[in-house]
Design brief:
Mean pLDDT of chain A: 94
Radius of gyration of chain B: 22 Å
Largest sheet of chain B: 2 strands, antiparallel
Oligomer: heterodimer
Strand order of the largest sheet of chain B: 1-2
Largest sheet of chain A: 6 strands, mixed
CATH architecture of the domain at 18-22 and 114-280 in chain A: 3-Layer(aba) Sandwich
Number of domains of chain B: 2
CATH class of the domain at 18-22 and 114-280 in chain A: Alpha Beta
CATH topology of the domain at 18-22 and 114-280 in chain A: Rossmann fold
Shape of chain B: globular
Number of helices of chain A: 13
Strand content of chain A: 15-25%
Order of helices and strands of chain A: EEEEEEEEHHEHHEHEHEHEEHEEEHHHHH
Helix content of chain B: 55-70%
Low-confidence stretches of chain A: none
Structural class of chain B: mainly alpha
Low-confidence stretches of chain B: 170-179
Number of strands of chain A: 17
Mean pLDDT of chain B: 89
Helix content of chain A: 25-40%
Strand content of chain B: under 5%
Shape of chain A: globular
Number of helices of chain B: 15
Number of strands of chain B: 2
Structural class of chain A: alpha/beta
Order of helices and strands of chain B: HHHHHHEEHHHHHHHHH
CATH superfamily of the domain at 18-22 and 114-280 in chain A: NADH-ubiquinone oxidoreductase 51kDa subunit
Radius of gyration of chain A: 22 Å
């Protein structure tokens, strides 16, 4: 079935650079001798360790117990012995306690791993499997999936969107997943449908630069009348939740609101596949699909990596580098986080590891804002980045708040397009942080 | 082992740069410059070069004195210098572009913080100061050709036609006044289009200006919002004021500084609104003011003052035209 190209207003067209890895089939990365599994790999509260030094653990065994509803358990990605629990650097720039396990090479599965069948399970049983499997949003934000699948009773969800846009340049792991495992994605999608109940329409949104993925997903969904694959314009940030909902349904998530406020739930294709593995195969989330790319890597690859493998080992598996990288990024080039060391573990949040050459990483000199207005025309939220940034840099966060700084989705389109290379996003993020703290102070004062 | 670069996202940037944008404006201004040399001789080239050199040197000197980073490489001073020269008559003495450029860069641009901080178009503000200081030098028009015969601009001629009609219409019949007014010969539409008329260096050739404007629009350096609204509003008002005379209103579009102003001056980034709605207001405001000055004012030409007035209104316009953000109004619930 032919669909017209769907999109949103604003956005940018950065060089895609997907050719480096789009034809690289998913490989299994070597399992390291030691894994470092952080107890916080999601948005929300960290986990409490369920194991201690010297304990024997098995593959898939739960080693971190969530401390609240907005949290997700953590599982061992190998079998072996706990060496220690220590604070480590995370690739998102923070620090957290992590369980360090010496791999015995046996991959002895935990007894909790039991294959099952989604059709015989109730919605509640399915949801508790998703919760127990530690599944979080695989799009990069790592928001616990079971929270998204538990809308309050007053929110009627009628639309389910599966996000296969993968709009970040360089990244191709979702693309490979859609080509190689369309049936797993569909299985997971059906589980989500069952958990939510009452969903009348389901869309799988894929950008038009991935015709092969569109073909595969359409074929996989051909027997499902309520599932439709829709083609999106290749534009960044097409995969941003609110932009995706708008492009496909025309509904605008209200400022400060959530997708469920417009009756929509968005899940990433990788999340759907993870749900399939959890329900059908009984496997918790202990591995992550990662694109390793950038000009400095010897061999760019799409890899299935055990969580807790260090960036260094993943890069070694790709043959190391052709020239010493000037920048190492966790995630995509638009929203990813630059690393100061390679000794950080792959977590549930890691969607890509990019090694940039000196040329790719060149930092341009910042000059005066010339008020060209390009940042306004590309902002998917229709903010005035130049004005918010100017207020933020002047320390006037109250004005920045009035200009809706808090609505910024941090896609980075403004900074990308700025001819004066101004740190627009960075200064807006700073304003957001200050505004949040001010709000906290006010709440406490009351 | 070297250190990795750690910087905030995004980690990729457009190849577009300030100097590239300014260079595009310079490229877009070249056809009009060539046309001026063709019609008025090589003298105009010297005026353009003097204005440009003075602008760049002024910027360099000020930045050195103020111990600020030297930014003449961004080409913005070159643009100011060219635009200033384009606003001078071909008969201008050598010192006029020099003083003009010094005023534009030192007083209007650098005194307010340099690139992006000037609240008026530097070239136009400097032109206004020159007009007030040397009104005769600034309006000594010559006919195109090698002989430099003194002349009038077509807009001044139109004013004269109006003046005669107004003076005679009360006493004599309409037919007589028409004959008197027609005795002043206006250039043909073709001459007006190619630039074979009296006027400032940069404004005369409408075709050359349109060529440059098309380049700027295609390159995405300017948006169509300000220039098209500006030109359309001017057209509409002259059309109404001329008693719904289509030809005259059309003819007037190519006279004076309208095209130069609409495409190259009113679109100046720092002195025009950044909001889409604000840009329409800017264009419409410039158009109304230009038509009012042309029709009712004492000057034959109103483009530069219209733009300057709207420049001053820009912060206010921006304040009230902030785009409605995504999700600001609840759509579906």
């Amino acid at each position: 079935m032919f669909n017209k190209l769907l999109s949103f207003t604003g956005g940018i067209y950065p060089p895609e650079n997907k050719h480096l890895t789009e034809n690289k089939a998913i490989e299994l990365c070597d399992v390291p001798e030691i894994v470092t599994i952080p107890l916080k790999q999601h948005i929300g509260a960290p986990c409490d360790a369920l194991v201690k030094k010297g304990d024997k653990v098995r593959l898939g065994q739960k080693i971190g117990q969530p401390r609240g509803f907005v949290s997700a358990p953590v599982h061992s990605s190998v079998s072996g012995e706990v060496k220690s629990i220590e604070i480590v650097d995370l690739p998102n720039g923070s620090k957290a306690p992590a369980v360090i396990i010496v791999n015995d090479g046996q991959d002895t599965p935990d007894e909790s791993i039991k294959p099952d069948n989604a059709e015989r399970l109730s919605a509640d049983a399915l949801k508790s499997i998703v919760t127990e499997a530690g599944i979080v949003g695989m799009g990069g934000a790592a928001f616990p999936t079971h929270v998204k699948l538990s809308p309050p009773d007053d929110r009627k969800i009628d639309i389910l969107l599966l996000n296969g846009a993968e709009c970040e340049p360089f990244l191709t792991s979702d693309y490979r997943l859609m080509i190689e495992h369309p049936d797993d994605i569909l299985y997971g999608l059906k589980v989500i449908r069952k958990i939510l109940g009452g969903v009348s329409r389901i869309y799988i949104g894929i950008e038009d630069n991935k015709p092969q993925a569109i073909k595969q997903m359409t074929a996989a969904a051909k027997n499902e009348n309520d599932i439709q694959v829709v083609t999106l314009r290749t534009k960044y940030p097409q995969g941003a939740e609110k932009q995706l909902i708008y492009a496909i349904t025309g509904r605008q998530v209200p400022s400060g609101g959530l997708p469920m406020d417009v009756g929509a739930v968005v899940q990433n294709v990788g999340t759907a596949a993870a749900i399939a593995f959890a329900v059908r195969d009984g496997l918790p989330l202990y591995r992550k699909l990662v694109t390793v790319s950038g000009g400095a890597v010897r061999e760019q690859k799409n890899l299935m990596v055990r969580i807790g493998t260090s960036f260094r080992e993943v890069i070694d598996f790709c043959g190391g580098w052709t020239e010493e990288p000037a920048k190492v990024i966790n995630g995509g080039p638009m929203m990813g986080v630059a690393q100061y060391t390679l000794d950080v573990p792959v977590t549930k949040e890691t969607s890509g590891i990019l090694l940039f050459t000196k040329e790719e990483a060149a930092v341009r000199e910042v000059s005066n804002c010339i008020r060209c207005g390009r940042c306004i025309s590309v902002c998917p939220i229709h903010l005035m980045p130049l004005t918010i940034s100017a207020r933020s840099l002047a320390g006037n966060y109250e004005e920045a708040d009035k200009l809706h700084a808090m609505d910024c989705v941090e896609c980075g389109s403004c900074s990308y397009i700025c001819p004066a290379s101004r740190p627009l996003l960075h200064s807006i993020q700073m304003a957001k942080k200050e505004i949040m703290e001010e709000r906290k102070r006010r709440a406490q004062a009351k | 082992m070297n250190f990795f670069t750690v910087s905030a996202s995004p980690h990729i940037r457009t190849r577009e740069s300030t100097s590239r944008i300014m260079l595009d404006v310079v490229i877009a201004l070249i056809p009009a410059g060539i046309a001026s040399i063709w019609f008025f001789g090589v003298k105009t080239l010297w005026i353009i070069l003097l204005g440009t050199t003075a602008a760049v040197l002024t910027e360099l000197l000020i930045q050195k004195l103020m111990k600020k980073p030297v930014t003449i490489g961004d080409c913005s001073a070159v643009v100011t210098g060219i635009l200033l020269a384009y606003n001078l008559p071909p008969s201008a003495p050598w010192w006029l572009p020099v003083i003009g450029s010094i005023i534009a860069v030192a007083l209007v641009k650098q005194a307010f913080g340099g690139l992006g901080h000037n609240f008026m178009n530097p070239a136009l503000a400097a032109r206004a100061i020159l007009m007030a200081s040397w009104p005769v030098r600034m309006t000594y028009w010559i006919k195109p050709g090698p002989d430099a015969v003194s002349s009038s601009t077509p807009l001044a001629l139109l004013k004269a036609v109006d003046a005669i009609s107004n003076a005679t219409s009360g006493a004599t019949s309409g037919a007589t006044s028409g004959a008197t007014a027609a005795s002043i010969e206006l250039p043909s539409l073709w001459d007006v289009l190619i630039g074979n008329i009296g006027g400032t260096i940069g404004e005369v050739s409408s075709l050359a200006l349109l060529l440059g404007a098309a380049y700027l629009l295609i390159r995405g350096v300017i948006s169509w919002r300000i220039p098209l609204t500006y030109i359309a509003t001017t057209f509409l008002f002259t059309f109404i004021a001329n008693g719904f005379e289509l030809y005259n209103a059309f003819y007037e579009l190519f006279l004076g500084g309208l095209l130069l102003g609409a495409f190259f001056m009113a679109t100046d980034y720092s002195s025009s609104p950044v909001t889409p709605l604000g840009q329409f207001i800017m264009g419409a405001g410039c158009g109304i003011l230009t038509a009012v000055i042309r029709i009712y004012g004492g000057y034959p030409e109103g483009v530069s003052y219209s733009i300057l007035l709207m420049n001053v209104a820009t912060p206010l316009i921006e304040k009230y035209t902030r785009p409605r953000i995504f999700g600001e109004v609840r759509s579906h619930a």
